[in-house]
Amino acid sequence: MNQLAVITGATGGIGGAIAGALAEEGYALLLTGRQADKLSALQAELRARYGVDVDSMTADLTLPEDRAALVNAIVSQSRPLKLLVNNAGTSHFGLFVDSHDSATEELIRTNITAPICLTQSVLRQVGGTGSGLEVINIGSTFGIIGYPGFATYSATKFALRGFSQALAREYGDTDIRIRYFAPRATQTGLNSAAVNALNAELGVTMDSTETVAQAFSQFLRSNKLVCHIGWPERFFVWLNKLSPGTVGSALIKHLPVIRRHASSA
Length: 265
Known about the structure:
About 50% of the residues lie in helices and about 15% in strands. The chain is an alpha/beta fold.
């Protein structure tokens, strides 16, 4: 019997690519997202291409009732849950003082509240000893490097990284694994025109979603609890831990460019 993987935010670029990678590995899938038409199209595509069982469920995981419905759908599956991928998320680029409270609150609900509460519900229902459950939280390089123009987004990814680390240690003497996978800049629909223009001017490398999915598959097969994608990003992750002032000084030099694009976001 194929093992079951649940992927949130499956209709996004990274989510869809990860779904394809897991289908290729032979997982049965339960996909969730907010856009029913895109979910149905992805479900049909993966079934036809890989011949695996694929179910889908439209849900807004910032809503408690939708999280509860998803957990009920997981419990009702004919196979036990092996992998939960908390991929659903959103981003925001702009000057912090220009951000509206409603946008900040939505970012926090989507990027922090939803994955933490969903993980808790899943662990309560199917995360008993001997389940071998894996939870992989999809973070970001900005979850360790606070980046100008992404203050609130960085805060949410810092929080998700801290949650992942603490929970991994809480379950460290069990067969349940909590892991953190952090892509760098990626070519997805979440990027605004201002973000793409900023990355182009600063020469930031942007991975394809297929590249991210390949790295995810390699991470899944490894024993690592944390993975950061890309070079020199991995170097700056290391350097920011060792000497955050050095990284901060380098970023300050780019502030005129960042502010110009953030102001147009």
